[in-house]
């Protein structure tokens, strides 16, 4: 098969994996706030409780084949399930095509000085694959966070800890094993040599701390403007969603991106919250919790992070033009 032919095979495979991961994210979003296990038991119909057969559980496809109804009880299955699966599939495809197969042109340039000559270090396929998986992990965690925030605006701190902890631990462990997942290191000459792993971890922690700090400021501002869904300032449920989500962006993309994405996302989030509170109060269905923000903070962060990764090189160029 030709090289171009193989690309299509790989993309088809990535789309299939994306669909399965999207299906898993649906399970996480549905079960994690309920405090239930996300691995056991298998998927059940929320209406009749009967297990869903494997051939009725194919991402996106099954929902259309079943016309959005359970095979057993005929109860409606929300369109959001296939929508989340399709969105995850799209994310896997977009980043697969752009990042994994794009040769790294969108990533920051890595100059290597040898005396008076500067060599540009190209990204290897292995490095691009690590970056691809790394960025998918961030975007998928933020997507799940956005959906949980939408469904449960008052979810408690334990929900957010359970969601963000795996992403945080994985983000630090991966930076230790593959330090080059942070192309713009915060410390040292760059992730080279035996110190590379430690540099990767420190780099991640610096980003985490800087961005989480910014998240705390947004949380504080939402309280001052009286636009938070949560009223109890002292609780972890108030701080963990904002600090955790922003912190993850800093951990995965570095402190520069953590601050830039966190600042712009938070600004849009805050403006939409002010508009919803004082200008256009949203219609709330009876029995539903009032949503202070029309679009969850994590959704802004997810979109911002994706844009940051896709156009990383351009953001740096624009940043240099300003400074
Ligand atoms: Zn059913």
Written account of the structure:
With 323 residues, the chain is an all-alpha fold. The protein has two domains: 1-87; 102-322, no CATH class. It is built from ten helices and two strands. A two-stranded antiparallel ribbon has the order 1-2. Helix 1 packs parallel to helix 4, helix 7 runs antiparallel to helix 8 and helix 8 (255-279) runs antiparallel to helix 9 (297-310).
List the topology elements.
Elements: H1 3-31, H2 61-65, H3 80-100, E1 111-114, E2 117-120, H4 125-151, H5 157-177, H6 196-224, H7 236-253, H8 255-279, H9 297-310, H10 312-322
Antiparallel strand pairs: 1-2
Helix pairs in contact: 1-3, 1-4, 3-4, 4-5, 4-7, 4-9, 5-6, 5-7, 6-7, 6-8, 7-8, 7-9, 8-9
Bound molecules: zinc ion.
Quick gist of this model?
Helices cover about 60% and strands about 0% of the residues. The protein folds into two domains: about 1-85; about 100-320, no CATH class. It is globular, with a radius of gyration of 21 Å.
Count of folded domains: 2
Contiguous helical run count:
10
Helix proportion range: 55-70%
Q: SSE order, as H and E? A: HHHEEHHHHHHH
Shape: globular
Which strands sit side by side, in order, in the main sheet?
1-2
Low-confidence stretches: none
- What is the number of strand segments? 2
Ligand names: zinc ion
Mean model confidence by pLDDT = 89
Structural class by SSE content: mainly alpha
Sheet with most strands: 2 strands, antiparallel
Estimated radius of gyration: 21 Å
* Strand fraction: under 5%
């Amino acid at each position: 098969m030709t090289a171009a032919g193989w690309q299509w095979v790989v993309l088809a495979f990535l789309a299939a994996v994306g669909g399965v991961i999207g299906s898993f994210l649906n399970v996480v979003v549905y079960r994690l706030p309920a405090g239930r296990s996300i691995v056991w038991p298998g998927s059940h119909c929320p209406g009749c409780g009967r297990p869903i057969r494997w051939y009725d559980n194919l991402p996106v496809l099954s929902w259309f084949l079943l016309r959005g109804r359970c095979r057993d009880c005929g109860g409606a299955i929300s369109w959001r399930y296939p929508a989340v699966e399709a969105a995850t599939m799209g994310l896997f495809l977009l980043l697969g095509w752009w990042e994994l197969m794009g040769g790294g042109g969108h990533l920051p340039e890595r100059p290597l000085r040898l005396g008076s000559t500067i060599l540009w270090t190209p990204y290897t396929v292995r490095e691009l694959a690590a970056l691809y998986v790394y960025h998918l992990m961030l975007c998928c965690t933020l997507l799940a966070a956005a959906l949980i925030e939408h469904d449960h605006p008052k979810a408690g701190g334990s929900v957010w800890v359970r969601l963000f902890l795996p992403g945080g631990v994985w983000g630090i462990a991966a930076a230790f094993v593959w330090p080059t997942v942070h192309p713009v290191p915060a410390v040292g000459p760059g992730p080279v040599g035996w110190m590379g792993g430690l540099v990767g971890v420190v780099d991640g922690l610096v980003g985490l701390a800087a961005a989480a700090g910014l998240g705390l400021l947004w949380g504080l501002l939402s309280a001052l403007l009286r636009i938070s869904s949560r009223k109890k300032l002292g609780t972890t449920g108030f701080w963990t969603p904002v600090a955790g989500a922003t912190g993850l962006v800093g951990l995965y993309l570095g402190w520069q991106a953590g601050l830039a994405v966190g600042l712009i996302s938070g600004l849009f989030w805050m403006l939409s919250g002010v508009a919803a509170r004082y200008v256009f109060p949203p219609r709330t269905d009876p029995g539903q919790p009032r949503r202070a923000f029309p679009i969850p903070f994590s959704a802004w962060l997810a979109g911002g992070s994706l844009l940051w990764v896709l156009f990383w090189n351009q953001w740096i160029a624009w940043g240099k033009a300003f400074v």
